[in-house]
Specification:
about 0% strand; mainly alpha; 17 helices; single chain; about 400 residues; Growth Hormone, Chain: A
């Protein structure tokens, strides 16, 4: 597997950054029960934090893609990592909950400048024909970071306090930005193309990319809801201790560590991916519903099953987005950013929808509603054409 890597320093720095990126994505969901006591918040407060984050992450995907097309993915990823880290540090020192909500928006905005450039960069350091494996390993690093964020950070926060835990994760982000600057080779930005209205229009109106964005939203819906709410749900609704709740929540990231590279290999070797993605989406939707039933066992099964299929399917979808021929190779970052923008901006709604159902009808209804929404978003897969014809 690793013999396909052509630049190990750049590869490992990108993976380290990806782990810390995911850690700062999910640590707030893990430690929110501690934050809620200080700020006097409930599940609606967690919904506000989650939605603010996804709004920032979604809205800035295209600006991030435009910047990367002009100045290169390396500088764009470094800038995004620093913006994310500063916003995390600000949230750690906030005295009002509204400031934390605003800071989470900019954490998401910073991450928007990282994902698509990272996808493009990681594939540059793999031999031709193994690019899908590179995407899979990059997404696996995200899953590993998610595990640390949901499980490890609740332990850290209960030991040193939630504020110091956020300061620690913010500083880790700064260190990974330095690693990217040192280890990822510099690019020639003098010949980078400018992105004007015609180029943007071609990408934003490309039917293939639009459908991939909708399908990506459906694939990630279950893991978004589980990773954002299951820890708080287990603690408040089922009376589970925080450490065990965090461990259960982190399971949604455990199995994709293995399934994401599998998805990348499947994409490298077999271009017909529609059936695999469709099945992954249906199973993910069913797994989301299961989280609301069976006591603690329901969330455990939901996290394991949903995490496996979402990691596999999401890797395939992002690999297809990278190979889209809506634009030339120099615009691959923009194509991936657009698909991810659709997915993340659409993900702004489900946390609000879930928290509303949870407060009005209860958690069981909220999990069912999330599963139904995920299933509906998978249906457009039937309209997708195969990547070999894009």
């Amino acid at each position: 597997m690793f013999d396909a890597i052509v630049n190990r320093g750049a590869f490992w720095s990108l993976l380290a950054q990806r782990v810390v990126y995911a850690l700062n994505w999910y640590n707030v969901a893990s430690i929110f029960s501690l934050m809620a006591v200080e700020f006097g918040q409930g599940v609606s407060g967690l919904g506000a934090l989650t939605s603010s984050f996804y709004l920032g992450a979604g809205l800035f995907q295209i600006p991030g893609g435009v910047v990367a097309a002009r100045f290169g993915p390396r500088l764009t990823a470094i800038f995004g990592t620093l913006l994310m880290s500063v916003a995390v540090l600000i949230s750690a020192t906030a005295l009002q909950f509204d400031v934390v909500v605003l800071a989470r928006f900019f954490v998401g905005a910073g991450m928007a400048f990282v994902f698509a450039p990272g996808i493009v960069l990681i594939t540059q350091y793999f031999r031709r024909g193994a690019e899908g494996l590179g995407v899979g390993l990059y997404i696996s690093a995200y899953q590993a970071g998610g595990m640390v964020g949901l499980f490890g950070w609740v332990v850290v926060a209960t030991t040193i306090g939630w504020r110091l835990s956020l300061i620690a994760s913010g500083m880790l982000g700064v260190f990974t930005a330095v690693a990217l600057f040192v280890l990822v080779p510099r690019e020639d930005t003098t010949t980078r193309p400018r992105v004007g209205v015609p180029e943007l229009r071609r990408v934003l109106l490309d039917r293939h990319l639009l459908l991939l964005g909708v399908v990506a939203t459906g694939l990630s819906m279950g893991s978004i809801l589980v990773s954002s709410f299951v820890v708080y749900y287990l603690i408040k609704a089922l009376g589970v201790v925080p450490a065990l709740a965090g461990a259960v929540g982190s399971l949604v990231f455990l199995v994709p560590i293995f399934s994401s590279p599998i998805g990348g290999r499947l994409y490298d070797r077999r271009k017909n991916f529609k059936t695999t993605v469709a099945l992954a989406g249906v199973v993910s939707a069913l797994a989301t519903v299961m989280a609301g039933f069976g006591g603690i066992y329901g969330p455990v099964i939901s996290a394991l099953l949903g995490g496996f299929v979402s990691g596999l399917g999401f890797t395939i979808v992002m690999s297809a987005a990278r190979e889209s021929r809506a634009m030339g190779p120099e615009y691959r970052t923009l194509s991936v950013a657009w698909v991810n923008s659709i997915s993340l901006t659409s993900s702004f709604v489900p946390p609000i929808f879930f928290s509303f159902l949870a407060e009005i009808l209860g958690y069981s209804a909220a999990w069912i509603g999330g599963g139904v929404l995920a299933f509906l978003l998978i249906i457009p897969i039937v309209l997708l054409r195969e990547p070999s014809s894009t």
